[in-house]
Amino acid sequence: MTAQLSVPARRVRRRGGWTAWAFIAPVVIYLLVFYAYPLARNVELSVRDYTVRSFIDGTAPFVGFANYRAVFANPTFGPALLNTGLFVGVSILFQFSIGLALAVFFVRQFPLSGMLRALFLVPWLLPLLVSGSVWSWMLNSDSGIVNSFLEAAGIGQINWLTSPHWSLFAVLIANIWIGIPFNLVILYSGLEGIPLEVYEAASIDGANGWQKFLRITLPLLRPVSAITILLGLVYTLKVFDLIWIMTRGGPADSSTTFAIWSYRLGFGSLLPDFSPAAAVGNLLILVALIFGLIYIRTQSRLDPA
Q1: Residues 83-97 pLDDT 10s
Q2: Whether 121 contacts 295, CB under 8 Å
Q3: Each residue of 150-190: pLDDT tens digit?
Q4: Domain for residue 37, yes or no?
Q5: How many domains does the chain have?
Q6: Cis bond upstream, residue 26 (ω within 30)
Q7: 24 assigned to some structural domain
Q8: Residues 6+ apart with CB under 8 A from 131
Protein backbone atom coordinates (compact mmCIF):
# COMPACT_ATOMS: atom_id res chain seq x y z
CA MET A 1 0.00 0.00 0.00
CA THR A 2 2.84 2.35 0.87
CA ALA A 3 4.61 1.60 -2.40
CA GLN A 4 1.41 2.26 -4.33
CA LEU A 5 0.93 5.62 -2.62
CA SER A 6 4.53 6.68 -3.11
CA VAL A 7 4.29 6.71 -6.92
CA PRO A 8 1.44 9.27 -7.08
CA ALA A 9 3.18 11.27 -4.37
CA ARG A 10 6.35 11.43 -6.45
CA ARG A 11 4.32 12.47 -9.47
CA VAL A 12 2.64 15.25 -7.50
CA ARG A 13 6.00 16.39 -6.16
CA ARG A 14 7.53 16.33 -9.66
CA ARG A 15 4.55 18.22 -11.09
CA GLY A 16 4.86 20.80 -8.32
CA GLY A 17 8.56 21.21 -9.10
CA TRP A 18 7.87 21.82 -12.80
CA THR A 19 5.16 24.31 -11.85
CA ALA A 20 7.58 26.19 -9.61
CA TRP A 21 10.18 26.32 -12.40
CA ALA A 22 7.52 27.54 -14.83
CA PHE A 23 6.78 30.50 -12.54
CA ILE A 24 10.43 31.34 -11.93
CA ALA A 25 11.58 30.83 -15.54
CA PRO A 26 10.58 34.34 -16.79
CA VAL A 27 12.59 35.97 -14.01
CA VAL A 28 15.61 33.72 -14.63
CA ILE A 29 15.48 34.37 -18.38
CA TYR A 30 15.16 38.12 -17.79
CA LEU A 31 18.16 38.17 -15.43
CA LEU A 32 20.28 36.09 -17.81
CA VAL A 33 19.44 38.17 -20.91
CA PHE A 34 19.45 41.67 -19.47
CA TYR A 35 21.96 41.35 -16.59
CA ALA A 36 24.22 38.32 -16.80
CA TYR A 37 24.94 38.48 -20.54
CA PRO A 38 25.66 42.26 -20.68
CA LEU A 39 27.90 41.95 -17.60
CA ALA A 40 29.81 39.02 -19.10
CA ARG A 41 30.07 40.86 -22.40
CA ASN A 42 31.42 43.96 -20.68
CA VAL A 43 34.05 41.92 -18.86
CA GLU A 44 35.03 40.29 -22.17
CA LEU A 45 35.32 43.73 -23.80
CA SER A 46 37.63 44.94 -21.04
CA VAL A 47 40.16 42.10 -21.40
CA ARG A 48 40.51 42.37 -25.19
CA ASP A 49 41.78 45.12 -27.48
CA TYR A 50 38.68 46.10 -29.43
CA THR A 51 38.66 48.53 -32.31
CA VAL A 52 35.74 49.41 -34.55
CA ARG A 53 36.83 46.76 -37.05
CA SER A 54 37.51 44.02 -34.51
CA PHE A 55 34.26 44.84 -32.75
CA ILE A 56 32.43 43.94 -35.97
CA ASP A 57 34.42 40.89 -37.08
CA GLY A 58 35.24 39.62 -33.56
CA THR A 59 39.03 39.37 -34.02
CA ALA A 60 40.10 41.41 -31.00
CA PRO A 61 43.22 39.95 -29.32
CA PHE A 62 43.24 39.01 -25.65
CA VAL A 63 45.28 41.51 -23.60
CA GLY A 64 44.35 40.56 -20.02
CA PHE A 65 44.48 43.45 -17.58
CA ALA A 66 46.31 45.80 -19.93
CA ASN A 67 43.22 47.99 -20.37
CA TYR A 68 42.84 48.32 -16.61
CA ARG A 69 46.51 49.28 -16.25
CA ALA A 70 46.02 51.87 -18.99
CA VAL A 71 42.98 53.26 -17.19
CA PHE A 72 44.87 53.53 -13.89
CA ALA A 73 47.80 55.25 -15.62
CA ASN A 74 45.59 57.69 -17.51
CA PRO A 75 45.84 61.31 -16.21
CA THR A 76 42.04 61.47 -16.13
CA PHE A 77 41.77 58.62 -13.62
CA GLY A 78 42.70 60.70 -10.55
CA PRO A 79 40.31 63.62 -11.20
CA ALA A 80 37.53 61.23 -12.27
CA LEU A 81 37.95 59.14 -9.10
CA LEU A 82 37.93 62.25 -6.88
CA ASN A 83 34.95 63.76 -8.69
CA THR A 84 33.02 60.49 -8.51
CA GLY A 85 33.68 60.19 -4.77
CA LEU A 86 32.69 63.79 -4.08
CA PHE A 87 29.66 63.62 -6.35
CA VAL A 88 28.34 60.43 -4.77
CA GLY A 89 29.24 61.24 -1.16
CA VAL A 90 27.97 64.82 -1.07
CA SER A 91 24.82 63.94 -3.05
CA ILE A 92 23.84 61.09 -0.72
CA LEU A 93 24.65 63.12 2.40
CA PHE A 94 22.40 66.04 1.45
CA GLN A 95 19.70 63.98 -0.26
CA PHE A 96 19.31 61.74 2.77
CA SER A 97 19.54 64.55 5.35
CA ILE A 98 17.06 66.83 3.61
CA GLY A 99 14.79 63.91 2.70
CA LEU A 100 14.74 62.73 6.32
CA ALA A 101 14.04 66.25 7.61
CA LEU A 102 11.13 66.61 5.17
CA ALA A 103 9.82 63.13 6.05
CA VAL A 104 9.81 64.02 9.76
CA PHE A 105 8.07 67.27 8.88
CA PHE A 106 5.36 65.65 6.76
CA VAL A 107 4.72 62.75 9.12
CA ARG A 108 3.03 65.31 11.37
CA GLN A 109 -0.29 65.51 9.58
CA PHE A 110 -1.49 69.05 8.87
CA PRO A 111 -3.77 70.69 6.30
CA LEU A 112 -2.48 70.45 2.70
CA SER A 113 0.36 68.13 3.78
CA GLY A 114 -0.62 65.61 1.12
CA MET A 115 -0.61 68.19 -1.65
CA LEU A 116 2.71 69.64 -0.56
CA ARG A 117 4.22 66.17 -0.39
CA ALA A 118 2.99 65.47 -3.91
CA LEU A 119 4.59 68.70 -5.16
CA PHE A 120 7.94 67.57 -3.79
CA LEU A 121 7.73 64.57 -6.13
CA VAL A 122 7.86 66.77 -9.24
CA PRO A 123 11.70 66.81 -9.53
CA TRP A 124 11.73 63.02 -9.32
CA LEU A 125 9.07 62.63 -12.01
CA LEU A 126 10.66 64.96 -14.56
CA PRO A 127 12.93 63.41 -17.21
CA LEU A 128 16.60 64.08 -16.54
CA LEU A 129 16.84 65.78 -19.93
CA VAL A 130 14.31 68.36 -18.79
CA SER A 131 15.87 68.77 -15.34
CA GLY A 132 19.37 69.19 -16.75
CA SER A 133 18.20 71.73 -19.33
CA VAL A 134 16.30 73.75 -16.71
CA TRP A 135 19.27 73.84 -14.34
CA SER A 136 21.59 74.79 -17.21
CA TRP A 137 19.35 77.75 -17.94
CA MET A 138 19.04 78.72 -14.27
CA LEU A 139 22.82 78.57 -13.73
CA ASN A 140 23.76 80.29 -16.98
CA SER A 141 26.48 82.86 -16.33
CA ASP A 142 24.89 85.65 -18.37
CA SER A 143 21.12 85.15 -18.26
CA GLY A 144 20.56 82.66 -15.45
CA ILE A 145 18.07 83.44 -12.72
CA VAL A 146 20.50 82.34 -10.01
CA ASN A 147 23.10 84.92 -11.03
CA SER A 148 20.35 87.53 -11.26
CA PHE A 149 19.53 86.93 -7.58
CA LEU A 150 23.21 86.98 -6.66
CA GLU A 151 23.72 90.30 -8.42
CA ALA A 152 20.65 91.72 -6.71
CA ALA A 153 22.12 90.61 -3.38
CA GLY A 154 25.43 92.30 -4.22
CA ILE A 155 27.42 89.06 -4.47
CA GLY A 156 28.12 89.19 -8.20
CA GLN A 157 28.11 86.63 -10.97
CA ILE A 158 29.46 83.09 -10.65
CA ASN A 159 30.46 81.06 -13.68
CA TRP A 160 28.64 77.94 -12.51
CA LEU A 161 29.03 75.86 -15.67
CA THR A 162 32.23 77.25 -17.18
CA SER A 163 34.50 77.56 -14.16
CA PRO A 164 36.61 74.55 -13.05
CA HIS A 165 35.99 75.61 -9.46
CA TRP A 166 32.18 75.65 -9.69
CA SER A 167 31.13 73.12 -12.34
CA LEU A 168 31.07 70.10 -10.00
CA PHE A 169 29.23 72.17 -7.42
CA ALA A 170 26.63 73.10 -10.05
CA VAL A 171 25.85 69.51 -11.03
CA LEU A 172 25.79 68.58 -7.34
CA ILE A 173 23.06 71.14 -6.67
CA ALA A 174 20.97 69.77 -9.52
CA ASN A 175 21.48 66.12 -8.51
CA ILE A 176 20.63 66.80 -4.87
CA TRP A 177 17.43 68.54 -5.95
CA ILE A 178 16.46 65.55 -8.08
CA GLY A 179 17.25 62.93 -5.41
CA ILE A 180 15.48 64.51 -2.43
CA PRO A 181 11.96 63.29 -3.40
CA PHE A 182 13.11 59.64 -3.58
CA ASN A 183 14.55 59.84 -0.07
CA LEU A 184 11.45 61.65 1.14
CA VAL A 185 9.08 58.96 -0.15
CA ILE A 186 11.04 55.98 1.21
CA LEU A 187 11.83 57.52 4.59
CA TYR A 188 8.27 58.80 5.00
CA SER A 189 6.95 55.26 4.51
CA GLY A 190 9.46 54.06 7.10
CA LEU A 191 8.34 56.67 9.61
CA GLU A 192 4.71 55.69 9.03
CA GLY A 193 5.60 52.16 10.12
CA ILE A 194 6.89 53.21 13.55
CA PRO A 195 4.16 52.64 16.18
CA LEU A 196 2.92 55.79 17.90
CA GLU A 197 2.78 53.89 21.20
CA VAL A 198 6.58 53.93 21.33
CA TYR A 199 6.64 57.73 21.24
CA GLU A 200 3.84 57.94 23.79
CA ALA A 201 5.76 55.69 26.17
CA ALA A 202 8.87 57.84 25.69
CA SER A 203 6.86 60.99 26.44
CA ILE A 204 5.63 59.44 29.68
CA ASP A 205 9.26 58.73 30.61
CA GLY A 206 10.07 62.41 30.04
CA ALA A 207 11.92 62.21 26.72
CA ASN A 208 12.01 65.40 24.66
CA GLY A 209 11.70 65.63 20.88
CA TRP A 210 15.44 65.37 20.17
CA GLN A 211 15.81 62.35 22.45
CA LYS A 212 12.88 60.64 20.71
CA PHE A 213 14.51 61.24 17.36
CA LEU A 214 17.91 59.89 18.44
CA ARG A 215 16.72 56.97 20.60
CA ILE A 216 13.58 55.88 18.71
CA THR A 217 13.31 57.28 15.19
CA LEU A 218 16.84 56.69 13.94
CA PRO A 219 17.27 53.15 15.36
CA LEU A 220 13.86 51.95 14.12
CA LEU A 221 14.45 53.62 10.76
CA ARG A 222 17.84 51.95 10.29
CA PRO A 223 16.73 49.18 7.87
CA VAL A 224 14.86 51.66 5.67
CA SER A 225 17.74 54.12 5.86
CA ALA A 226 20.23 51.44 4.79
CA ILE A 227 18.33 50.44 1.65
CA THR A 228 17.65 54.11 0.83
CA ILE A 229 21.35 54.96 1.02
CA LEU A 230 22.30 51.87 -0.99
CA LEU A 231 19.83 52.61 -3.78
CA GLY A 232 20.88 56.25 -3.78
CA LEU A 233 24.53 55.25 -4.05
CA VAL A 234 23.92 52.89 -6.98
CA TYR A 235 21.78 55.49 -8.74
CA THR A 236 24.27 58.33 -8.17
CA LEU A 237 27.23 56.26 -9.34
CA LYS A 238 25.68 55.88 -12.77
CA VAL A 239 24.42 59.45 -13.22
CA PHE A 240 25.35 60.48 -16.72
CA ASP A 241 22.52 62.42 -18.35
CA LEU A 242 22.50 65.31 -15.90
CA ILE A 243 26.26 65.95 -15.96
CA TRP A 244 26.50 65.55 -19.72
CA ILE A 245 23.68 68.01 -20.36
CA MET A 246 25.01 70.63 -17.95
CA THR A 247 28.80 70.52 -18.32
CA ARG A 248 29.79 67.51 -20.49
CA GLY A 249 32.30 66.72 -17.77
CA GLY A 250 34.20 69.99 -18.18
CA PRO A 251 35.75 72.34 -18.14
CA ALA A 252 39.14 70.57 -17.99
CA ASP A 253 37.63 67.40 -16.49
CA SER A 254 36.51 69.35 -13.42
CA SER A 255 33.13 67.57 -13.40
CA THR A 256 34.15 64.32 -15.09
CA THR A 257 33.02 61.21 -13.24
CA PHE A 258 33.61 57.57 -14.14
CA ALA A 259 30.27 57.44 -15.97
CA ILE A 260 31.17 60.48 -18.10
CA TRP A 261 34.69 59.20 -18.70
CA SER A 262 33.43 55.78 -19.80
CA TYR A 263 31.08 57.41 -22.31
CA ARG A 264 33.82 59.65 -23.66
CA LEU A 265 36.15 56.71 -24.19
CA GLY A 266 33.52 54.61 -25.90
CA PHE A 267 31.55 57.14 -27.90
CA GLY A 268 33.18 60.55 -27.56
CA SER A 269 35.55 60.43 -30.51
CA LEU A 270 35.86 59.17 -34.07
CA LEU A 271 38.22 56.43 -32.87
CA PRO A 272 36.45 54.99 -29.82
CA ASP A 273 38.30 52.98 -27.18
CA PHE A 274 35.71 50.34 -26.42
CA SER A 275 37.93 48.23 -24.18
CA PRO A 276 39.11 51.00 -21.78
CA ALA A 277 35.53 52.28 -21.67
CA ALA A 278 34.36 48.82 -20.61
CA ALA A 279 37.12 48.71 -17.98
CA VAL A 280 35.94 52.00 -16.45
CA GLY A 281 32.35 50.71 -16.50
CA ASN A 282 33.45 47.56 -14.69
CA LEU A 283 35.07 49.68 -11.99
CA LEU A 284 31.69 51.31 -11.39
CA ILE A 285 30.03 47.89 -11.23
CA LEU A 286 32.67 46.69 -8.77
CA VAL A 287 32.11 49.66 -6.47
CA ALA A 288 28.34 49.12 -6.51
CA LEU A 289 28.85 45.39 -5.83
CA ILE A 290 31.12 46.10 -2.86
CA PHE A 291 28.57 48.41 -1.26
CA GLY A 292 25.83 45.89 -1.98
CA LEU A 293 27.78 43.18 -0.16
CA ILE A 294 28.43 45.56 2.73
CA TYR A 295 24.69 46.21 2.94
CA ILE A 296 23.86 42.49 2.91
CA ARG A 297 26.43 41.74 5.62
CA THR A 298 25.23 44.65 7.76
CA GLN A 299 21.61 43.54 7.48
CA SER A 300 22.52 39.95 8.37
CA ARG A 301 24.23 41.18 11.54
CA LEU A 302 21.26 43.34 12.49
CA ASP A 303 18.81 40.52 11.83
CA PRO A 304 20.46 37.19 12.70
CA ALA A 305 17.20 35.30 12.25
Answers
A1: 999 999 999 999 999
A2: no
A3: 988 888 888 999 999 999 999 999 999 999 999 999 999 99
A4: no
A5: 1
A6: no
A7: no
A8: 123, 174, 177, 178, 242
